[in-house]
Amino acid sequence: MPARTKKKVPRDEVQRPIQAEVQAALAALKQMSTPHDRENLERFGITATKAFGVSMANLKALAKRLGRNHELAAALWETGWYEARMLTSFVDEPACVTPGQMDCWCRDFDNWGICDTVCFHLFDRTPHAWAKVAQWSDEREEFVKRGAFALLASLALHDKSTGDDSFVETLPLIERAATDERNFVKKGVSWALRAVGERNTALHAAAEALARRLAASPEAAARWVGKDALKDLTKPAVLSRLAKRKG
User: In this predicted model, which residue has the larger pLDDT, 200 or 14?
Assistant: First the structure.
């Protein structure tokens, strides 16, 4: 008896369910949008050419209904809508994210909101995160470079298994980037320095030493980063928390 051949499903039939989900998600985002949330984008300095204006709480609620789906995340990203791209942070599957995808999406970053959210909720959970910190820190594009330090800050906050040495090795990257005068880069650099320094007492000492060195720099941007980081690193609440953690 001859073996049965598997019927090939036309490509458009494979794509249709994902596209239907995308359209349903866009319709839901449109319904959730409010004038207040649209105004908030401008208020917080988020420039997005295609945006509905949806609160983070509503975005997370929709993402929970959609569930994890790598193909859906890729299709949502391709729409170019700010909120659809924000959804991918909670919908994509970290284990399925490739280095090429990270580079492609990072080049699409056009505001700090999408940059930080994708790094904080998705990219730092991938196995390629550390390599991208080093790679992107040398890039020229503003939000690619910010992505390096937003990702480093996210790792400092979420990665519980990596030892201190890996974080110490990022301090020269921070020091080199601290001279970048662009607002969103230097804020990302300061965030990374503060986050590394708040992991434990040993890293705090190293981060504070770098912050003090930067605060005394002849470079205006480096001085700003150093002073901004020191404000957090020397707070009594931070020092108390680190002391309790050490104990």
Answer: 200
Query: Could you give the CA distance from residue 49 to residue 69 in angstroms, rounded to a whole number?
Result: 26
Instruction: Confirm if 88 and 118 have CB atoms less than 8 A apart.
Output: yes
Contact 197, 189 (CB under 8 A): no
Domain boundaries defined on the chain? 18-92, 103-247
Checking if the pLDDT of 93 tops 60, the result is yes
**Domain 103-247, what fold?**
1.25.40
Residues whose CB is less than 8 angstroms from the CB of residue 196 and which lie 6 or more positions away in sequence, other chains included = 152, 153, 156, 167, 170, 171, 174, 203, 206, 207
Neighbours of 53 (CB within 10 A): 20
Q: What is the pLDDT of residue 246?
A: 79
| Cβ atoms within 10 Å of 32's Cβ, excluding its own | 18
pLDDT for res 16: 59
Look at residues 153, 177, 157, 167 and name the one whose alpha carbon lies nearest to residue 226.
177
Place of tokens 């490739």: 98
In whole angstroms, what is the distance from residue 147 CA to residue 98 CA?
Answer: 16
Rg (CA), the chain: 21
Token pair of 137 as six digits? 């820190």
CB 243 within 8 A of CB 201: yes
Confidence (pTM) = 0.92
pLDDT at 73: 98
